[in-house]
TrEMBL record, chain A:
FAD binds at residues 52, 147-149, 311, 317-320. The active site is at residue 443. NAD(+) binds at residues 183-190, 206, 271. InterPro entries: Class-I_Pyr_Nuc-Dis_Oxidored (IPR050151), FAD/NAD-bd_sf (IPR036188), FAD/NAD-binding_dom (IPR023753), FAD/NAD-linked_Rdtase_dimer_sf (IPR016156), Lipoamide_DH (IPR006258), Pyr_nuc-diS_OxRdtase (IPR001100), Pyr_nucl-diS_OxRdtase_dimer (IPR004099), Pyr_OxRdtase_I_AS (IPR012999). Its cofactor is FAD. The keyword Disulfide bond applies. Residues 345-454 form the Pyridine nucleotide-disulphide oxidoreductase dimerisation domain. GO terms for molecular function: dihydrolipoyl dehydrogenase (NADH) activity; flavin adenine dinucleotide binding. The keyword Cell inner membrane does not apply. One of its GO terms (biological process) is 2-oxoglutarate metabolic process. This is Dihydrolipoyl dehydrogenase. The active site is a redox-active disulfide bond. Pfam families: Pyr_redox_2, Pyr_redox_dim.
UniProtKB/TrEMBL annotation, chain B:
Belongs to the 2-oxoacid dehydrogenase family. Residues 80-121 are annotated as: Disordered. Keywords: Acyltransferase, Lipoyl, Transferase. This is Dihydrolipoamide acetyltransferase component of pyruvate dehydrogenase complex. GO terms for cellular component: cytoplasm. Its EC number is 2.3.1.-. It comes from Pseudorhizobium pelagicum. GO terms for molecular function: acetyltransferase activity; dihydrolipoyllysine-residue succinyltransferase activity; lipoic acid binding. Forms a 24-polypeptide structural core with octahedral symmetry. Part of the 2-oxoglutarate dehydrogenase (OGDH) complex composed of E1 (2-oxoglutarate dehydrogenase), E2 (dihydrolipoamide succinyltransferase) and E3 (dihydrolipoamide dehydrogenase); the complex contains multiple copies of the three enzymatic components (E1, E2 and E3). InterPro entries: 2-oxoA_DH_lipoyl-BS (IPR003016), 2-oxoacid_DH_actylTfrase (IPR001078), 2-oxoacid_DH_E2_comp (IPR050743), Biotin_lipoyl (IPR000089), CAT-like_dom_sf (IPR023213), E3-bd_dom_sf (IPR036625), PSBD (IPR004167), Single_hybrid_motif (IPR011053). It comes from the Bacteria. It catalyses: N(6)-[(R)-dihydrolipoyl]-L-lysyl-[protein] + succinyl-CoA = N(6)-[(R)-S(8)-succinyldihydrolipoyl]-L-lysyl-[protein] + CoA. Pathway: Amino-acid degradation; L-lysine degradation via saccharopine pathway; glutaryl-CoA from L-lysine: step 6/6.
Length: 464, 422
């Protein structure tokens, strides 16, 4: 097979890699992208997109169940709500297929060459790919490592049998009656809630004292209320020991006491780790930052001409961070002067209700010695929240006390994920409380709570 | 509501026209009675013109650098019963106004709104941003800075809460361009800048041309032993009363000049070329050439013949300060009958001073240096100073010039003569 020589080689077609390749192609760079799987990576095929599909389906089904139970305040009554998880999964797979082929066509449109197969480094600028038709050698002037991350496997609970990774949990066609989720981070809580809504009996086992440890207590509280309303059992400061001898229960140790939690399936979501082994990366001997590849503000690794982007470079392991890095690296390779200078990377937890955060929390700011003004506005005082029959949660704004510069915005509530755009924009633009207060927010929307939170931080709330 | 026209006032001394050096208001600005609205310059002085009424500026006569004749309309003001009437944002342009005034009309109406856009008000200096941590700037501004190689931490912010605006980066770039070229001393430079001569600089240029083309200069240099007068000066400074100013050599020269011109009256005179008229003065008004930030001016110590040494010194100090700060009046900047030019330590050995038209003589003081002088038996160190003097050769013959300077020399070398009466 004839060797390929190109300017830019991207290894991994996840959100970081494919965005990098598309932009590079648009800029006229001779680009090749390699991935063993379908274009889209974890996010598109086994992460963000399929999980959101499942969460949506679960939410719809849950709403229908409430109607069927005769408890709906809206006066809607239904009977015998059922769900066929096989069809749900097929619907989800359809979305994934559409998006993945969309990515392929975007790559083609940008004249990026796609090579299917597992890549392996020969040296920093040469990669061999095992394709269906043989070994393909690719030589490149610049290489981008965008190999992503994979779920962390517990030694005591290896994946397989009843033990599922998040990816496997998204492809179930049979609903488990009893599901134990090990790890109360955002993935565990999102999926645990979805399965509970679909009808599973769910228990969440978390080693720390609080689930969703990435968010402060105030933001987590409304989620915890819903979790207990749904009958999800949460065990904190508890450790998963292993499967019971018969394989139908999880042995859990809570403050020294062991007990067995009967389980049909055990979902392990104890975190993700960078994919840095198995493709010759070890031989390149790149500098590391813990388990991750070390990069500078231009995503350069310790080897000239070798870049790394996305989950392989560290926290936060978020698709939108990877995409921004990918776009930046493509422009750097095109000779433009670029560097990482984003002020915030918004994060979302698609629990029920959703939690979002951009910038600093009040505690973050105070720990940096900044005197802050904090404004809350509850959705209980928001008209749109009432009309959507979901008033839980609030919007919170954190600003410097002296200049009113907005340092952070957080919210918890139904559908607040869409507010992240406004939050991030405010922070990137250097908005002050007065800027948010002086912006007309459309009525009736949940976004009015952002306006009110800013007003309230200045002691001028109108609707409270 | 009415309209009031401010006319170019008669700025005195037969001046027929004056140059506009600064508009202190723009079209649309409110003015109060007695507020200065414009600065005009005659060949003598810069005069601020006050508004006799309150109202709103609706029209300006021209742009800075224009010359306007006396009594010509300078500015129109819409007057109203109430002061501080809010200014309508779109004041109509006066019909028939010169095209020049368009520039003024386009000045933003609201001074506050244009504040960040006015580079002179902001120091482009490398000041730290107000807030710690990452510089506060919108993503588009960050990209602009990056594309231009600007470190935003070095840019001074003019936006709210220390926000860096695109304009701030532009100002920084404009300032940095100069600094960068200064760091590369061997780089080829191709930039050139055309600067229109206005105001004082133009006056100086015109006057120098007139003086050097009309007056046939004769320059005569003589050295003066100032050891004695310097000793006397040191003693007088040491023993002076607290309210007395510290003496330089200049007041001694002025008093010597008063004595010398008394014996050479045609040297303390002005010559009107057109009329062919020489005017001799009994008063000695000594112009003192003074460097100011704007350029050379000549404040005048009037009636030096009636002033003591200390009085002369005090007056020089007062006038020099007034000239430098731009507060000297028209009277203080004109009417001299003879001029002294002194550059102090920068005095050099010889200079060829240009006569301050319409005078006929100028005396330049060169630097004092200790030199070995043969006293008949040996070389002795003496404090020596040259006087370089120019005369209008139409009026002053070489002989007269020489005897005048020799008289000055005698007076300075034997300073007791300066203080002798009669």
């Amino acid at each position: 097979m004839k060797d390929i020589t190109c300017t830019l080689l991207v290894i991994g077609a996840g959100p970081g890699g494919y965005v990098c390749a598309i932009r590079a192609g648009q800029l006229g760079i001779d680009t090749v992208i390699v991935d063993a799987g379908r274009p889209g990576g974890t996010c598109l095929t086994v992460g963000c997109i399929p999980s959101k599909a499942l969460i949506h389906a679960a939410g719809e089904f849950d709403a229908l169940k409430r109607m069927a139970s005769g408890k709906s305040d809206l006066g809607i009554r239904a009977a015998n709500a059922t769900i066929d998880l096989g069809i749900t999964t097929a619907w989800k797979d359809g979305i994934v297929a559409r998006l993945s082929s969309g990515v392929s066509s975007l790559l083609h449109k940008a004249r990026v060459k796609i090579i299917h197969g597992k890549a392996r480094f020969r040296d920093g600028k040469t990669v061999e790919v095992e394709t269906e038709t043989g070994l393909q050698i690719i030589r490149a002037e610049s290489v981008v490592i965008a190999t992503g991350s994979e779920p962390v496997e517990l030694a005591a609970l290896p994946f397989g049998g009843p033990v599922l990774s998040s990816a496997q949990a998204l492809s179930l066609t049979q609903l488990p009656n009893r599901l134990v989720v090990v790890g109360g981070g955002y993935i565990g809580l999102e999926l645990g809630t979805a399965f509970a809504k679909l009808g599973s009996q769910v228990t969440v086992v978390e080693a720390m004292a609080q689930v969703l440890p990435a968010y402060d207590r105030e933001l987590v509280q409304p989620v915890m209320r819903r979790v207990s309303e749904r009958g999800i059992k949460v065990m904190t400061t508890s450790k998963a020991i292993g499967l019971s001898p018969r394989g139908d229960a999880l042995v859990v140790e809570e403050r020294g006491e062991r007990q067995e939690l009967p389980a049909d399936r055990i979902l392990v979501t104890v975190g993700r780790q960078p994919q840095v082994t198995g493709f010759g990366l070890e031989d390149l001997d790149l500098d590391r930052a813990g388990p991750f590849l070390q990069i500078d503000d231009r995503c350069r690794t310790s080897m000239r001409g070798v870049y790394a982007i996305g989950d392989v470079t560290g926290e936060p392991m978020l698709a939108h961070r990877a995409m921004a890095q990918g776009e930046m690296v493509a422009e750097i390779v095109a000779g433009r002067n670029r560097g990482w200078d984003s002020r915030c990377i918004p994060s979302i937890c698609f629990t029920d209700p959703e939690i979002i955060s951009a910038g600093l929390s009040p505690d973050d700011a105070r720990s940096q010695g900044i005197e802050v003004k904090v404004g809350h506005f509850p959705f209980a005082a928001n008209g749109r929240a009432m009309t959507m029959d979901d008033e839980d949660g609030f919007v919170r704004v954190v600003a410097r006390a002296d200049s009113h510069l907005v340092l952070g915005l957080q919210a918890v509530g139904a559908g607040v994920s869409e507010l992240t755009a406004a939050f991030a924009l405010a922070i990137e633009m250097g908005a002050r409380l007065e800027d948010i207060a002086g912006t007309i927010h459309a009525h009736p929307t949940r976004s009015e709570a952002v306006h009110e939170a800013a007003l309230r931080a200045m002691g001028q709330a109108l609707h409270l | 509501m009415g309209e009031f026209t401010i006319k170019m006032p008669d700025v005195g001394e037969g001046v027929a026209e004056a140059e506009l050096v600064e508009w202190l208001v723009a079209v649309g600005d409110p003015v109060r009675e007695d507020m200065a609205v414009a600065a005009v310059m005659t060949d003598k002085a810069t005069v601020e013109i006050p508004s006799p009424v309150s109202g709103t500026v609706v029209w300006l006569a021209g742009e800075v650098g224009d010359t306007l004749s006396v009594k010509a309309p300078l500015m129109r003001i819409e007057t109203s019963g109430i002061d501080d009437t809010p200014v309508p944002p779109d004041t109509p342009q006066e019909k028939g106004a010169p095209v020049d005034s368009m520039t003024a009309a386009e000045t933003p109406k609201e001074p506050a709104a244009c504040a960040p856009l006015s580079p002179p008000a902001l120091s482009p200096a490398r000041l730290p941003p107000a807030a710690p941590g990452k510089p506060l700037a919108a993503p588009s501004v960050r990209l602009f800075a990056r594309n231009n190689g600007v470190d935003l931490r070095q840019v001074r912010a003019s936006g709210p809460a220390g926000r860096i605006l695109r304009e701030d980066v532009e100002h920084y770039l404009a300032a940095a361009t100069d600094a960068t070229s200064a760091r590369q001393p061997l780089a080829i430079k191709t930039a050139q800048e055309a600067v229109k001569l206005t105001g004082l600089r133009r006056r100086i240029a015109e006057k120098m041309v007139l003086a050097t083309t009309r007056i046939p200069h004769i320059t005569y240099v003589e050295e003066v032993d100032v050891t004695a007068v310097e000793d006397l000066r040191a003693t007088m400074n040491r023993d002076r009363k607290p309210d007395h100013p510290k003496l330089t050599l200049l007041p001694f020269l002025m008093r010597a000049l008063v004595k010398a011109v008394a014996e050479h009256p045609q040297i303390n005179a002005t010559f009107d070329t057109e009329a062919g008229l020489l005017t001799r003065f009994s008063a000695v008004h000594i112009g003192i050439a003074t460097q100011t930030p704007a350029g050379l001016t000549v404040p005048v110590v009037r009636h030096a013949e009636a002033r003591s040494i200390f009085d002369c010194a005090a007056e020089i100090g007062r006038l020099a300060e007034a000239a430098r700060s731009g507060t000297a009046t028209r009277d203080e900047l004109g009417g001299s009958t003879i001029t002294i030019s002194s550059l102090g330590r920068l005095g050099g050995i010889v200079s060829t001073p240009v006569i301050n038209l319409p005078e006929v003589a100028v005396v330049a003081v060169n630097k004092i240096a200790i030199r070995p002088i043969w006293d008949g038996t040996q070389f002795v160190p003496r404090k020596m100073m040259n006087l370089s003097s120019s005369f209008d050769h139409r009026i002053i013959d070489g002989w007269d010039a020489a005897t005048f300077v020799q008289r000055l020399r005698t007076l300075l070398e034997t300073p007791a003569l300066i203080f002798m009466e009669g």
